[in-house]
């Protein structure tokens, strides 16, 4: 029995796919890995890369020699999609501030409490050592 050592890019340890012969086709290796790892064919595809040469196997009829080590990555069926999401938000109201009217008494009370200590205290109290 011949074997190919494979590991997912996110894992540390290699697993073994066994077969008869001197090499295995990419299609057969993918089927075996998906079966062993309990992956569904409808959800994803596998990207297989040679661990030593970094060559990516793309042709399903490509032959992978026995005793090879490969790195496996799961990819979506439709290809790699962008992971960043952009949302467009349309606003009809102002972004900053409030649309409520502010009472004039509230504003004058605010300034009164803010400025009152400045006018009532002597100059000596404002200067601190």
Name the features.
27% strand, DWNN domain-containing protein, Ubiquitin-like (UB roll), five-stranded mixed sheet, alpha+beta, 3 helices, rod-shaped
Radius of gyration over all CA atoms, rounded = 34 Å
**Overall number of strands:** 7
| SS-derived structural category | alpha+beta
Order of helices and strands: EEEHEEEEHH
In helices, the fraction of residues equals 25-40%
Assess the beta-strand content as a share of residues.
25-35%
CATH class of the domain at 2-76: Alpha Beta
The overall pLDDT, averaged over residues, is 79
The CATH architecture of the domain at 2-76 would be Roll
Number of helices: 3
**Intertermini distance:** 90 Å
| CATH topology grouping of the domain at 2-76 | Ubiquitin-like (UB roll)
Shape: rod-shaped
Major sheet: arrangement of strands: 2-1-7-4-5
Low-confidence stretches: none
CATH superfamily of the domain at 2-76: Phosphatidylinositol 3-kinase Catalytic Subunit, Chain A, domain 1
Biggest β-sheet description: 5 strands, mixed
Would you summarize the structure shown here?
With 129 residues, this protein is an alpha+beta fold. The chain has three helices and seven strands. It has helices spanning 26-37, 104-120, 123-126, and strands spanning 2-8, 15-19, 23-25, 44-50, 56-57, 63-65, 69-76.
How would you characterize this protein structure?
The protein is of the alpha+beta class and 129 residues long. The chain has a domain at 2-76: Phosphatidylinositol 3-kinase Catalytic Subunit, Chain A, domain 1 (Ubiquitin-like (UB roll)), CATH 3.10.20.90. Helix content is 26%, strand content 27%. The chain is built from 3 helices and 7 strands. The chain has helices at residues 26-37, 104-120, 123-126, and strands at residues 2-8, 15-19, 23-25, 44-50, 56-57, 63-65, 69-76. The strands form 2 sheets. It has a 5-stranded mixed beta sheet, covered by helices on one side. A two-stranded antiparallel sheet has the order 3-6. Strand 1 and strand 2 (15-19) form a beta hairpin. The chain starts with a strand and ends with a helix. The mean pLDDT is 79.
């Amino acid at each position: 029995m011949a074997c190919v050592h494979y590991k997912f890019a996110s894992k540390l340890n290699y697993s073994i796919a066994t077969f008869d012969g001197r090499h295995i086709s990419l299609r057969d290796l993918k089927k075996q890995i998906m079966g062993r790892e309990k992956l569904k064919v409808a959800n994803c595809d596998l990207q297989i890369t040679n661990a030593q040469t970094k060559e990516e196997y793309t042709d399903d009829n490509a032959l992978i020699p026995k005793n090879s080590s490969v790195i496996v990555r799961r990819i979506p069926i439709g290809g790699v999609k962008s992971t960043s999401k952009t949302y467009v938000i349309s606003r009809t109201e102002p972004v900053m501030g409030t649309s409520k009217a502010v009472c004039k008494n509230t504003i004058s009370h605010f300034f009164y409490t803010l400025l009152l200590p400045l006018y009532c205290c002597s100059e000596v109290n404002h200067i601190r050592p």
